[in-house]
Design brief:
- The chain is of the alpha+beta class.
- The chain has a single domain, classed as Beta Barrel (Catalase HpII,  Chain A, domain 1).
- Helix content is 30%, strand content 22%.
- α1 runs parallel beside α2.
- 35% of the residues are buried.
Length: 337
């Protein structure tokens, strides 16, 4: 295969304005998490994104025996243990109506001793609505403040949302919106899942895609998602191909343009994720809600790449530290969801 581009830390660097906006955003994240039990009407502190846990499960990552020789050094075993969290992307937990079809499939990969190798928070929409770090931070800050202060912050949120509109007017983005609308009622496990931004694979840079095997997209349509997943895993195994794309040139595989799909980079199958029936953990337990899937806790050669991705490091840390400070007092109890 052609020689992929190598990782350079310059892809991640924020300017001074962006660093100031990040500090402001971190304060609103902490404020949101501290008030999240009231925002979502639950008895624990939630995440400030993907707040709703549908289920948590044990799984296994089986490495493909035919992966390219160049990639072999990064996979020193035949299989790896996984912890998987299925979630909804909303900041607020909705327990009354139907959830928006924005789902998360977060994967924690562990070694034979249970040590962390990598976290990969995957989502069912492959693109991000803006390439501007400043616009995103201002929008996310306004969104946090809206949930805390309600309608007094509406106009600020609306003003920031308008600025994002040009970024979502790409063919890739519009095509994927229509695709999502067509699948809006589909079962959560029938979706493909994507890394959105890039990640390191040693010196290489990659995107990740999870493609399920033969999942009935109409499964459990009359049930709420938690109940549908519980019913599914009573009788079914789940499996999905793990595919990657390599970055060869920034024109066709841009690192910091997240509103377009990569092209001219073939998907390479590196393995398979499997969840056996009966492998679900208790999604209501405190230990499940204390889990963190911060991709920057991964080993250095699996960490995220890019400016938008870089924001996750500080945001995840503030969120999880605030959440754990509150929720550790509930350890050993079950949450009322």
């Amino acid at each position: 295969m052609p020689e992929p581009l190598k990782y350079n830390k310059k892809f991640d660097e924020l300017n001074e304005e962006e660093k100031i906006l990040l500090d402001i955003n971190k304060k609103t994240i902490a404020d949101f998490v501290e008030q999240s039990s009231c925002i979502s009407d639950v008895n624990y502190a939630t995440r400030n994104a993907h707040a709703k846990t549908y289920t948590v499960a044990d799984g296994t990552f089986f490495i493909d025996k035919n992966i390219p020789e160049e990639l072999l050094p990064y996979f020193d075993g035949d299989k790896f243990d996984l912890t998987i969290r299925l979630s909804n992307a909303s900041l607020k937990i909705n327990n009354t109506g139907k959830d928006i079809p924005a789902y998360g499939f977060a994967v924690k990969i562990k070694d034979e001793n249970g040590g962390l190798i990598a976290n990969f928070p995957l989502v069912n929409f492959p693109l991000f609505p803006t390439n501007s770090v400043s616009h995103f931070l201002k929008l996310f800050t306004a969104l946090n403040r809206f949930y805390i202060k309600k309608w007094s912050s509406f106009f600020s949120l609306a003003a920031q949302a308008v600025k994002v509109i040009p970024s979502i007017c790409t063919l890739s983005f519009i095509r994927n919106i229509f695709k999502l609308m067509g699948k809006r009622n589909d079962f959560i496990l029938s979706f493909d899942y994507h890394s959105v931004g890039a990640y390191r694979l040693g010196d290489y840079m990659i995107k990740i895609k999870l493609v399920p095997h033969s999942v009935d997209r109409k499964f459990g349509r009359k049930l709420k998602m938690k109940a549908a997943l519980k019913n599914y895993f009573q009788d079914h195994d789940y499996s999905a191909d793990v595919l990657i794309q390599l970055c060869y040139d920034l024109k066709n595989q841009p690192i910091n343009r997240l509103n377009v799909e990569w092209k001219d980079s073939p998907f390479i199958r590196i393995g398979e994720v499997k969840i056996n029936k009966g492998a679900l953990l208790d999604p209501n337990s405190c230990s499940s809600e204390l889990l963190s899937f911060n991709p920057f806790e991964s080993k250095i050669f699996f960490q995220p790449v890019g400016k938008i991705q870089r924001l996750r490091d500080e945001a995840y840390k503030v969120s999880v530290q605030t959440r754990r400070k509150i929720n550790k007092l509930l350890h050993g109890k079950s949450f009322e969801l």
